[in-house]
Amino acid sequence: MKGRSETPKNWPSSVTYITKCVYSKKISPETLAQLTAGNLPQNPQQQQHTPGGISKLVRIKLITDKGHPACGQYGLFSACKISAKTHILDYMGYVHPDFESDPTSDYDISLDSRLGVAIDAQRIGNEGRMVNDYRGIGDRPNVMFDDHMVNGERRMGIYAMAKDIAKGEELLVSYGKGFWKARIN
Ligand SMILES: C[S@@+](CC[C@H](N)C(=O)[O-])C[C@H]1O[C@@H](n2cnc3c(N)ncnc32)[C@H](O)[C@@H]1O
What pLDDT, in 10s, does the model give residues 44-71? Predict the structure, then answer.
């Protein structure tokens, strides 16, 4: 049965699964208008892939391979062949001004540096929060973040890069060197 409590397989019970971003009350009305204004038509590809929120293109898996640097954690894997440049899903979470960032979160990504707004999926999020960094796992990333508009709402999409992704491959992005530098020591 489809309902509000439906979550993807292997979703951690400590995290609230959401299918829409939640906006901080600390975002100014002007900034909020820039993030949510407009009335663009729905992109049919996104409609098709996220009808009830849970993506058919990906699977969350617990990593049990001891040689994997995130062994014991989750990763996101393709559930089918994904063609190059496909929009796979959007990164959902708590959209907040930079001054409200939690420095301990490993799930906070910038949505718009000019507006000073980021998305934190530490406590609330969707499958996007499970994408690991490629370092120590693959030769290079096979997916990338890129912002786009959906019905006038600014979102952070996760897209396949220039090559097709085979069924069962782990989706790997580059968090950027800054992510890891900030975690040394
Ligand atoms: C956004 S989360 C990714 C999902 C996470 N694996 C989970 O189970 O929730 C980022 C965290 O995943 C782990 N991680 C991601 N990529 C990694 C990598 N290449 N090597 C080691 N740990 C990684 C680190 O603990 C990092 O702080």
Answer: 444 444 445 899 999 999 999 999 999 9
The alpha carbon torsion through 49, 55, 57, 61 (nearest 10 deg) reads 180
Phi, psi of 171 (to 5 degrees): -85, 125
Q: Is the CB of 137 under 6 A from ligand 1?
A: yes
**Domain range annotation of the chain:** 16-181
Q: Is 61 in the pocket of ligand 1 (CB under 6 A)?
A: no
Residue 74 near ligand 1, beta carbon < 6 Å: yes
Q: Could you confirm whether domain 16-181 is CATH 1.20.1050.10?
A: no
Q: Whose CA is nearest to atom 1 of ligand 1?
A: 107
Q: What is the ipTM of this complex?
A: 0.99
